[in-house]
Amino acid sequence: MKQKMRGKRAVGEAEFERLVGQLDESLSGSDSSDSEDDDEDEFGNKSKETTLSTLLKRQAKVADGDAEDAPVKKRKRGQGKPPVLWFTSPKLPQNTNLGVYRAIFPAEEANTEDHLVEMIQRKQLAPKPPPPQQQKPTQDEEGGVPLPPSMLPKETSASGPHYFLCMIGGGHFAGMLVSLTPKLVKKAGVEDRSATVIAHKTFHRYTTRRKQGGSQSAMDNSKGNAHSAGSSLRRYNEQALTDEVRALLAEWRGWIDSADLLFVRATGSTNRRTLFGPYEGQVLSHRDERIRGFPFSTRRATQSELMRAFIELTRVKVTTVDEAALAKQAEEAAAATAKAEAQQANAKPSTPKPPKPSKEEEEATLHTTQLQALIRRSKAPGLISYLQSNSIGPDFRFFPAEQNHHAPTPLHLAAASNSAVCVTALLTKAGADPSVRNEDGKSAFEIAGDRPTRDSFRLARFQLGDERWPWDAAGVPAALSQADAEKRTAREKEEKASEDAAEKQRRAGELERIRKEDAEKQTNAKEKKFGKGHVMEKPKLTAEERRMEEARGMTDEMRMRLEREKRARAAEERIKRLQGK
After folding, report:
1. Statement: residue 32 has pLDDT above 80
2. Which of 4, 5, 302, 556 is the most buried (most CB within 10 A)?
3. Is-above-0.85 flag for pTM?
4. Are 448 and 411 in contact (CB under 8 A)?
């Protein structure tokens, strides 16, 4: 089990004995003597369990002869290449492991893992003492503004092991050169090690649209060039950022060429093209074996983020792992999985599989489907033809019975579907029995839904005779001939017509009455609101107005003649009055 947890194959008994023999030969010195004393029982024999534990420890650790000179042992890892290499040492507490990122080792040594401990020891450089008179810079070293080259310490300008780190993305660029030789600084009166920054520089340009992301060049390649003011500004800033970054890399060419490793984060084709070109005077090449990516998540490209990444890369990780507890958990998980699989294999299926239908049942299901489809579509000729061609009786029982308990036969289904033509065809041509009842004890006539369907039973009784079937037992009323049915239909139509005429006349009278009542109500409402009206007489005209009205439209000659007549009548009136006196 422990061999499999470490990604190795299990060994047989012969291989196990050979490994134990090699283990006995390799153990020597005081540590071996102590182990042998501890492993022997009261009879002077080694127990097999102790030998197995010792062998596993032997395979899990790599040790030199002298424990004081080489105290660090590397743990075996599983398959794949994890980003962190874990080591252990007898000087550490039990189950304590030290982790170092694989990215800080050369590719060939990280793959072989033969001399990783010695390489780690070589990379642990002694801190550099501070100068006797340390001049205070105008700004802090991590303030974001690099010092001029003339003010840089000469001993760190191009000598000593150092790393180059840079990040670019979203219009932000940050680059830094950090020496692997730490420096001693005093914080609150206590000396501490701090990273030595050789040079650093940050740039920022507006190249991505807010709340949208993506570079302007990528947008242009996908949708074509935009002509807005913002797109033009972003396009200009992209080129300006590229020029600034390439100028900075050219300025740092000496440091970059002598750097031990180059840690680069550049996502997207535009950002990678900015760093790796191709362009004239190219500094970085993607074929450079020193280039590494950051084996952990990083944030926006800033100087503080580069310093955090450098500290994360160069600082040893300490963790506590209980191998025994992990092995026990793995064993318990394997046992639980095996138990669950055994229970699943032995458990009975919750829902039993339905039995396979027989040939007779399949034929009955097929006939049921076809007959029900013909009846529901009122295809009486097709229904009779199907019964005859397949030699099916008119009282065929639909299958399965539990799904057709209300209408178990074709006659029941025709009656329930109000298909009078199918009922007539089944009774008169196919010879269906009307006295057959369903599981509720009802005959086909009793579940018929309308009068024409019920009349089809009475017409069939008249046509077949009372002796053909027990019609009374089936609930069918007295026989009805076709002539009587037509007379009844004609009589009902006449009665219906007279009733409709009377109803039409009644509705007309009712509408007239309602119309009169509405008119009276409107008249009463107006009288109540405004009172009764009075007919106004034509105003009386004066003598002058009467003369003008009479003379209107006359010529001068006619008007003079009218005046003479009026004067003559007036004179005659005066004479009569005088004679009367």
Report:
1. no
2. 302
3. no
4. no
DSSP lists the bridge partners of residue 132 as: none
Burial label for 149, CB within 10 Å (0-12, 13-18, 19+), is exposed
Q: How confident is the model at residue 203 (pLDDT cuts 50, 70, 90)?
A: very high
Cβ–Cβ under 8 Å, residues 170 and 183: no
How confident is the model at residue 183, as a pLDDT?
84
At 215 the three-state DSSP class reads strand
The pLDDT value given to residue 30 = 36
Q: What is the mean pLDDT of residues 226-247?
A: 88
| 497: CB partners within 8 A, 6+ apart | none
Task: Read off the pLDDT band of 272 (50, 70, 90).
Answer: very high
Domains and CATH numbers, the chain: 2-123 (no CATH), 149-316 (no CATH), 359-477 (1.25.40.20)
pLDDT tens for 45-70 read 444 344 555 555 555 543 343 444 44
Kindly give the pairing relationship between strand 261-266 and strand 162-169.
parallel
Name the residue with higher pLDDT: 28 or 159: 159
Distance CA 82, CA 80 (A): 6
262-to-165, 256, 293 alpha-carbon distances in Å? 6, 8, 8
CA distance linking residue 485 with residue 259, whole number of Å: 113
Q: How confident is the model at residue 518 (pLDDT cuts 50, 70, 90)?
A: very high
Query: H or E stretch including 563?
Result: helix 556-580
- Identify the active-site residue in 3, 139, 216, 579: 216
Residue 581 CB contacts under 8 Å (≥ 6 apart), including other chains: none
Sheet with 84-88: strands ordered across: 73-74, 84-88, 96-101, 317-320
In the three-class reduction of DSSP (H, G, I as helix; E, B as strand; rest coil), residue 555 is classed as: coil
> Closest Cα partner for 246 from 208, 291, 203?
203
- From the list 397, 387, 390, the residue with the least C-alpha distance to 422 is 387
Q: Which residues contact 502 (CB under 8 A, 6 or more apart)?
A: none
Torsion angles phi and psi, residue 135, rounded to 5: -80, 135
What residues does 100 pair with on adjacent strands? 85
Q: Quote the pLDDT of residue 145.
A: 60
Q: What whole-number distance in Å separates Cα of residue 125 and Cα of residue 565?
A: 155
Q: How far is CA 544 from the centre of its chain?
A: 102
Q: Which helix (H) or strand (E) holds 185?
A: strand 172-187
Active site residue 482: no
Indicate the burial class of 428 (C-beta count within 10 angstroms; 0-12, 13-18, 19 or more). Answer: middle
Beta carbons within 10 angstroms of residue 498's beta carbon: 10
